[in-house]
Amino acid sequence: MGALGCGREQLEKRLVEEETAKRVDAAVAARVEEELKSERVQKLIQDKVDAARKQMESDMMEELEREKRRMIDDMRTKEVALPFLSRTGRPATHPPEVWDASYTLCLGC
Q1: CA triplet 33, 38, 40: central angle to 5 degrees?
Q2: What is the reported pTM?
Q3: Count of CA atoms in the C-beta half-sphere (13 A) of 36
Q4: Rounded to an integer, what distance in angstroms lies between the CA atom of residue 96 and that of residue 100?
Q5: Measured between alpha carbons, how far is 53 from 70 in angstroms, rounded to an integer?
Q6: Confidence of residue 7 (pLDDT cuts 50, 70, 90)
Q7: CA atoms of 67 and 65, how far apart (whole Å)
């Protein structure tokens, strides 16, 4: 009977440990939920979201500025490569059918 009593004690001990672990887990989950709802944590989260948004906007503006500078450089390069205009305003090297008189540049270029 001694061996049975020892097995029963170990079983009871294990059940108590499992129940204690469940209660601790439940208490921790409740405390975490309470903290997440607190004004302090909500403000911290909002501050992080605002900082991330500001950084993302800054990164996007920098990228747009780089793209703008690249496009301006491309346009300047193309301006240098444009043919000289004749006295009529038409490119000297292009036939009239590719020229739209409402513009000062050749549309066929």
Answers
A1: 135
A2: 0.46
A3: 6
A4: 8
A5: 26
A6: confident
A7: 5
